[in-house]
Amino acid sequence: SLKMASDSPESLMTLCTDYCLRNLEGTLCYLLDNETLRLHPDIFLPSEICDKLVNEYVELVKTDSIFEPHESFFTLFSDPRSTRLARIHLREHIVQDQDLEAIRKQDLIELYLTNCEKLTAKSLQTLVSFSHTLISLSLFGCCNIFYEEENPGGCEDDCLVNPTRQVLVKDFTFEGFSRLRILNLGRLIEGVNVETLLRPLASLAALDLSGIQLNDVGFLTQWKDSLVSLVLYNMDLSEEHIQVIAQLRKLRHLDISRDHLSSYYKFKLTRRVLNLFVENLVNLTSLDISGHTMLENCTIPSMEEKMGQTSTEPAKSSIAPFRGLKRPLQFLGLFETSLCRLTHIPAYKVSGDKNEEQVLNAIEAYTEHRPEITSRAINLLFDIARIERCSQLLRALQLVITALKCHKDDKNIQVTGSAALFYLTNSEYRMEQSVKLRRQVIQVVLNGMESYQEVTVQRNCCLTLCNFSIPEELEFQYRRVNELLLNILNQSRQDESIQRIAVHLCNALVCQVDNDHKEAVGKMGFVMTMLKLIQKKLADKTCDQVMEFSWSALWNITDETPDNCEMFLNYSGMKLFLECLKEFPEKQELHRNMLGLLGNVAEVKELRPQLMTSQFISVFSNLLESKADGIEVSYNACGVLSHIMFDGPEAWGICEPHREEVVKRMWAAIQSWDINSRRNINYRSFEPILRLLPQGISPVSQHWATWALYNLVSVYPDKYCPLLIKEGGIPLLKDMIKMASARQETKEMAR
Questions:
Q1: Could you give phi then psi for residue 652, rounded to 5 degrees?
Q2: At 282, which helix (H) or strand (E)?
Q3: 43/135 same-domain check
Q4: Do 559 and 647 reside in the same domain of the chain?
């Protein structure tokens, strides 16, 4: 079912929501006074649609860098007569006091505020407006919501001297929240009296007090007939806590796990405590004791432990206290405890570090609220993906994508997650992944590159992109990916390995793409960036992959794109060409790439006069004799000269070398090439070559063009015969055979 879920297209509801949010003005809204969004008066939307609009909006602001948030977005939902909200999930800095204030008339049933650090005590007052309908509320990580600003003295002049002080609100309680059943106060600020805060709540079903230190939890027993879920993650426990928990007999889910790295805990878990839970909490289906140190041995003798098939039957449990369970648990959290490595664990789902299944269960369970644990679990997944083969690939990928999206600003998760993605997207897993899933990977990778200038994240992200077919799979984010890579390459201090990968990616992105793509990338400063890299390498006297890839990228981006050719000349490209030729006379690949690029420049009639200098013509003539990279360098030099010759004797504005002398050397070069040479070149169009056929001004250019076509169609017939026919080459060749000025050997070849 997971495979199906990842493959199925988005629902119409999702597509419409996304479209409306990206085009609010064109769909649901109009702009008042050019700044405030207003809903069209004839629009009435039920909560199913409004909830999705709000929740998707939050998701888009968080994960899509191109999406622009709107100051007045929440005001669209201020009037319940036209827009109804019921269940909304808001996160982080996206939401401020005035946003909650804007929707205060709504009858909210469920409100999740996660890590909303900008909310202050003003929002506590707004919560009261929802008190008569709210069933489920989360204030997880809203660290400032119990603070209000105190204005000392209330005097105007004074305020400039004394900025506002933050004061803790002591008198707020959940008085009047008569329907509230589910409450998450995780990471609540110190100093708030939890007992007083909660006392008015008549019947709590689920309570999360993660990361709060309470010495006395006796007040929890007031809900002993209603509490089914209790989370005390990272609370330092004592014998008193355990006695209170044992009285909450209705509990189905208990989480007393902790992060064993966060601080020193006195409490150690014993066999007696686990026995107490099993005996008293008879409805328990889920228990999390991750991160705990076991004070004594809770396991059965190892001889017995290793016997038989692995079993979830409580009677066979390797953890002795759990033999008293009536049935296996649905979930048992054992992450970073020694117990997860035992053979018989009486639970259907176990989080731990023993194998892939346990690690994935851990990532799934802890991603939302415990990034510190999740990053360590993803690190374990990284090792599994790197060393063994992942058996639950799709699940692994989706969990890592979710974690990276959820914790865009968490460095540890970005580092481990981006590294895991590299191994999870490599070629051996390729067949199992849908287009939709691979696109999601690309999105989170680009998010990572955008948010993090950190070397490891940048390198991991670039490496992961190398696992995709370029440019095809990156086409849907073409501009963005190029901007990010150019951004990396334009940084003053650069990591060698990232530079190498980024240049390689840039080169691949401009290879075999449409000209409008190339023009767009040219306008982004691509040509300039590559020339700067070449300049740097030249100064260091190094000709490495970066140097070769940079020239190759310039060769690709100038192909049939005159604007980019002109940029190359304007930014002193020819000066760099000559310097590279002089500095690296033996580098064949480099020579081929540079001449391929100059071939592109020579195809542009308006730019050819700039190549018409004694120095350049001498260099091209001398390269006709080059044996570098088979015939490639000689062939490309001859191509450049063929286009220059095509402009006729009157365009030859130099005394040295003589035109006839150069023509003679061109004939000699072409005659020296093996007609069956296999080629290191890729033509998307023959148009620049075919241009040289119907003319009598330069027979040698005609001959070079005919030789090129003959070689390509005879060595690669499947690829190039159809191209020659499609571009009208046959009639041009037939007409040329009839021309008096054409040389006999040219006609033979054409025939």
A1: -80, 85
A2: none
A3: yes
A4: no
